[in-house]
Amino acid sequence: MNLKELSELLGLSPTTVSRALNGYPEVNVDTKRRVEAAAAEHGYAPNTMARRLATGRTMGIGHVVPLGEHDMINPIFAEFIAGAGEAYSKAGYNMILSVVPKEKELDTYRAMAASQNVDGVIVHAPLVNDPRMKCLVDLGLPFIVHGRSHSEGEAPYCWLDIRNKDAFFHATERLTGLGHKRIALLNGLPSMMFARRRLEGFEGAMEAAGLKVDPALIRGADMTEPFGYEAASALLAKVDRPTAFLCSSLTVALGVNRAVSEIGLQLGRDISLITHDDAMSFLPNGGSMPMFASTKSSVREAGYRAAEMLIDLIEGRVMGPVTELWDVPFLDGASLGPAPRE
Question: How confident is the model at residue 123 (pLDDT cuts 50, 70, 90)?
Fold first, then answer.
């Protein structure tokens, strides 16, 4: 079916149908929905080249993946990309993924802006004092950050984040309320802003409970199963071992569970554990009684929403900077129990 046939079917002009499918704000919501439904039913897709010529947009959104200090291509990143890709497909955009050495990341953004081969970019894994935001603001390239940085004198920018500090404050508070005093924090890399905020939440709750933070019980690294296993094994071998673990990722929690089981202990009875759970589709932590107590947040939903926000910015439906900060609900699980008697 072509544009003319779809227009005749709907009793609308070709211009109105084209504008509805291309997201023009002057088309009312009901008409837009009717046109989109008919297009989906009859398998009509707008001509991408014509759309580029009409709008002046490339219909491409960039993701730059730096490889260096750590490998960012991980299950959490894959879930985010899956959510973002769904939003791109719905809006007619293409994803442009560039994997580059860490030291070439800023140069890659500059090249994207100079060649005008993308309409905008999504920035991943913001660092403490991250230079990328200033670079992109100076380039005038539309962008949104998955997370937030914190730099002195930083210009406002678009971001989508979760309440990391609050989530880890309440998770730690849950453990101290059950009598746990020696709590280990297995966190992300210290250079990552989300890890800094989670550490602040942990320290704040320990202080509020009148407990001293033991630096020996805090570890930060790439959030992998081996990291969880090795860190937990070392800490559990101590005479004054922790009675509880707070993990920044479900994959880390799986490593902790392996270490606990290996020495004949059981989560929820001998050792308690709370993890941050990015609700990964291929690794669910659900059921009537989830395996792990968790602070729950879907990174796939975050990917979809971040892409929507960026497309709205590109197409002029909103004027930046726009921001969203999501609450993080707590989910009880079998890994949580009172501190064992001394």
Answer: very high
Reply yes or no on whether the pLDDT at 48 is more than 70: no
With vertex at residue 325, the alpha carbon angle to CA 158 and CA 124, rounded to the nearest 5 degrees, is: 50
d(CA 15, CA 84): 29
Residues 6 or more apart in contact with residue 8 via CB below 8 angstroms: none
Q: Average pLDDT of 267-283?
A: 87
Domains of the chain: 3-46 (1.10.260.40), 60-163+301-326 (3.40.50.2300), 164-297 (3.40.50.2300)
State which H helix or E strand residue 99 sits in. strand 94-101
Burial (CB < 10 A; 0-12, 13-18, 19+), residue 333, is buried
Q: Is the pTM of this model over 0.90?
A: no
Distance CA 310, CA 320 (A): 10
Q: Give the pLDDT of residue 8.
A: 85
Q: What is the 3-state secondary structure (H, E, C) of 10-48?
A: HCCCHHHHHHHHCCCCCCCHHHHHHHHHHHHHCCCCCCH
User: What pLDDT does residue 132 have?
Assistant: 93
